[in-house]
Amino acid sequence: MSTDAPSPVSAGRQTSAGRIEGGIDAVVIGAGPNGLAAAASLARAGARTVLLGATADIGGDGRRREIAPGVVVNDGEHLVSHLDATLISELGLYKHGVEYAARRLDTTYFFDDEPTITLSGDPTQGFQSPDVAALPHAAAFQRFFDEMIRGAGLLAPALAGPRFGGKGATLDEIIERADDEMRPRLMRYASASVDAVLEPVFDGGAFRDLLTAEATFRQGAGPHEPFSFLGLIKRFSGESAGLQGAVAYPVGGPAAVVDALRRVVQNARVDIRAPVKVRDIIIEYDKVAGVELAGGGQIRTSIVVYAESVQSLLSNALGAEDVDIEYQRRVARPAGAIASAQALIKLTKAPSAGDEASALANRLVYAPPAAALRKSFNDARAGAVPEKLAVEAIFPGAIERAGADDNDDIAPVLSAIAHPLPFDPAPSQETMDAVEKAVFDNLELIAPGLAKHIDVAEIRFAAGAGGVFGAPSPAVKDEKDAKSVLLTAAPRGPAPANVFDQWARANAAATASDVDGLFFCGPEAEIGVGLSCTAGRAAAAAALRYGRKKGRVS
Amino acid sequence: MTGHFDLVVADDDAAGLCVAACAARKGARVALVRPEAKRPRTARAASAIPNFVWRRLDLQKYDLSFSPVSAIVSLSADGEIVKTVESVARSADDLETRGVSDFDVWSDFVREVDMMTRRTDRLRGEFALDEFGRAEGAGRANGRINGASPIEDLAVLSHSCTDFLDDYFNDERMKTHVGARALSAVGLGGAEPGSVVALAGVFAPSAWPVRSTMDAEDVEKALESACEEAGAEIFSAAVHAVKGAGEKFRIVALSDGQELKTRYLFCASPDAARRAGLSPFAGAAFGAASGAASATIRLKVSDDVVAPDGEDGAIFHLADDLRELQAARDAVVEGRLPDTLPIEFQFSAPGEIIAYTAYCPDRFMEDGEAREWTSQDRQALGARAIERLSSHLGGLGDKVVRSDVSIDGAYDGENAVSAEAPDPRIIVQPASVNTIAAAVTLADRLLHEH
User: Fold this and answer.
1) In contact, B140 and B148? CB cutoff 8 Å
2) Are the C-beta atoms of residues B7 and B268 closer than 8 Å to each other?
3) Residue B349: exposed, middle, or buried by beta-carbon count in 10 A (0-12, 13-18, 19+)?
4) Taking the CB of residue B121, how many other CB atoms lie within 10 A of it?
5) Are A51 and A272 in contact (CB under 8 A)?
6) Does A146 touch chain B (CB under 8 A)?
7) ipTM above threshold 0.90
8) What is the pLDDT of residues B220-243, one digit of tens each?
9) pTM, whole model, 2 decimals?
10) Nearest chain A CA: its distance from B130 CA (Å)
11) Gap between the Cα atoms of A551 and A554, Å rounded
12) C-alpha to C-alpha distance for B426 and B422, rounded to whole angstroms
């Protein structure tokens, strides 16, 4: 694995004070995954595109980092489940280096009192394992799951990302078009709580626990709260390389996808400038006319794709006075209450082979009892660190080496996400200690004895907006004194309450600014967590339609 | 087949009776199915009959003495009082007198809640009619002249009540006053997504509650007469099963073997569904709170116990702040009694207090195991309620002559007629502070289609 990120920045290409630059079709502000996707799509369609990054770090948080000498980990997402299939084909991401180590990870679920259950990573294929079929509620689970996958398939287009300029279906249009049998179910799925949907199907048991954990994992709403069930639908609506519901792992981790996007951007001759600070988006007669930079220079353009947060759009770039007050109301998120933690752990030795060897290459999930998870959400919302956390863990090395005969070369690194935790931008030492304890205690249920083999551990604590975790650690810790380190990261934004809320805000954020030529694809335009780039791709497509209509882009 | 109906109303509490009577008066073929098991009567139902239903049923001719609730009063721990009345202008004056800084937005707030009520009614109608979005089809073609799409309504209503109140009010007392009232019937926490829907109908002058000093049983008898006179058929049985009869009809099989064919099976609240033998999840509904039961505590007290602020005819709410409501909801969700119990009460007759709380778990969770309500639980709840009331009524302890606690909506999973998927022909209306107003409005809408 290489740690050298490509350096695509054409340093020095700055627009100097007083200079007005023309001949540009589109400016993309923000060089995270969505900004890269938008810039690549625009440039490949023939638009002369400038990409402005706030820092020299093109690609955002999806980067590699050393947590201990020689131990390189991926920051940010550790799995890919919603990567935009259209984007993959349009940009030819496979040709630019995206390669899946696993397209459909099987998931092994761990419970308090029940034996583990391993479910196929291909939900449409059913659960043919005889062990699973023999479990109580297995038949009900299969029926329920099939229906849910059907629902997820139907709602997927609306849940993928915001809808620009009337293209694509909205939730109500999809529900309206569904057949008589499916329609009431979809209505219920959109608004019901996890408990309300699961209660009539399962009076308890492992399947209910695993579905509850999946539905609420990395959501801001607990299992008893209305609108929380849609989280489960969203989870299974993921598309990876066009495969419905797949949870995938690219060689090199999700950061490899960002690397590929960077290469596409370079090959498409996008003019990348970073670090550049945008002072203002110039609006003339309710239309975008250009971008003014902090240095005083201007870039004239009729299209701006904005891939930073709504907050920065309103407070810095655009200025609140230019934007409809109702728009501001609709996109402003209330303060979040729930966050997740990510743990990156280097073990003293490679995970052992033996009976569990095949499971090491699975996605590993600890599903607390549904009732305990309800309490955890209550605790987290009240500011306390819960005892029970749902945990998702992977051994990236084992996934990349799946099928190999021996485990000797497996990098002894574990990546885990734990949820729910209180949203706390400035946690006390006591809170951090409690988070550390809770994360390790719950990880123990997946990997008994893990605590004894920890070499270096880093736990970071952040809200889930955009699904990317915060800033990198300030320094590489010395192996000897750092058994476990907890670093807090500045949250990227309040955690959204639930998928329905995200859906509503994403559409409001993306479509209603009332400024012609401005296309928004910041974190608020994303629905659910995970690397998807759908918002960036859709914003670029809408920008191109706009440009062609105006005759500005050929 | 015993009969063919447009509407079968399950349960016989005041909401069910009002729906059946109003629908029958409109000419619909209505059956009222009353569960055999008698439940303890409460006065809450009487206090919730809104003016417009009263007028539609000509309830004055049944020798009922109703009068509008004089005020809705919230009492905080330090004895502070916030009071609003039917008249929006007078409410604002009273708030100003008490130094509540938000008095000037009260009329705006009531107007917005009114708008939200219409959105909620419309949305519930679309859910119930299984025509999400389709009812507004003409509007859509014309660019939705009538405003938002149902999914936009849903988006508005999916927010938390606390955020909504934060938008409107600065004064914590005001937020507590509104929140305590709105969430009281539903047992929701203010920070819960979707809890803003609980505001529907709250403080609306058009649906202002009335109260009667009569016994609730007499009120329900009068409503029963209204049902019979309007031509509704009454069956004394529980729902045994619901079977399909094509897309448009259902056969409701009763426990005594009779079968009723109907377009809709209607339950005015999740509790009503439970009492009738149905799972509250059996039907299509929006915004139903799950896992909550409610308790009515009826107290005989000595005559020297007087209503705070001299408001004999008011509905009182006890809640210190919105956090308390959230903590109580959290307790319910976790299957235990809240440490501090939010309570609603009124003086139903001289020397009689009826207190009510929707913050009760439907079953208790202990060490990961569920168990049902016991008499000890009821006693514990009664004690907590009396303790809470006592602190606001000048020491109630030795003035309670008799107390009686009844629980509604406790879990009884074994008997419930359930379905893995919701049946669009079964309507289980979510709990709300104005159950009767919402139920009658929803039934009107269902019948209007035919």
Assistant:
1) no
2) no
3) middle
4) 18
5) yes
6) no
7) no
8) 888 889 999 999 999 988 888 888
9) 0.90
10) 6
11) 7
12) 8
